[in-house]
Amino acid sequence: xxxxxxxxxxxxxxxxxxxxxxxxxxxxxxxxxxxxxxxxxxxxxxxxxxxxxxxxxxxxxxxxxxxxxxxxxxxxxxxxxxxxxxxxxxxxxxxxxxxxxxxxxxxxxxxxxxxxxxxxxxxxxxxxxxxxxxxxxxxxxxxxxxxxxxxxxxxxxxxxxxxxxxxxxxxxxxxxxxxxxxxxxxxxx
Length: 189
Prior knowledge:
Elements: H1 2-18, E1 35-37, E2 41-43, E3 50-55, E4 63-70, E5 74-77, E6 83-86, E7 89-97, H2 101-118, E8 120-128, E9 131-139, E10 149-157, E11 160-168, H3 176-184, E12 187-188
Antiparallel strand pairs: 1-2, 2-12, 3-4, 4-7, 5-6, 7-11, 8-9, 9-10, 10-11
C-alpha cells in the first residue's frame, strides 16, 4: 500500500511539472473593453456605434478583425453576387501580429495600396494618444460602392500593425474624420 501511495505521489509530481503555465495577463484593465486582441490591443465602442462582429478565427495566422456599425443594415448583393449588409456607417479594425517588422511593413503597404486602388485618396498624418497614424481620406467615384466616403488609418508598432477604416453612405450626416479620431482615441496599445 505504501509503495502504491509513493508511486502515485511520484506520478502526480511528474505531471505537475508537465502543466503549462497560463500566460501572464499584461493588461488586466483591458478586460472591461468589448474587444481585446491578446496583450496587443483593446478597443472601446464609441457613441452611436454598436459592436457588430469580432473574428479571431484567423488569430493563428496573426490576424484579428472587428466591426462596429451605425444605423440599420440594408441587404444588398455585393460585387461578387453575395448577400451583404450595408449600414449608414461602419468601422472596421484589422490587427496584424507579425513575426518581423519588415514583414509587417509589407502588409501595411499592401493595405494602403488596396485603399488607393478602390478610392480616390488624399493623405495626412495624425497623432492620437502618442501614436502617429498615416491617414487616407477616401472618396469613391464608383457608383457600385455603397460607401461613398471615409477615412483609413494605418499604424505599425514593432512587428504589429493596425488599420482602422471608417466608411459612410453618401447620406450619412456624421463626419467620418471625427469618428475616426474619436475611435483612435479609444484604442489601447
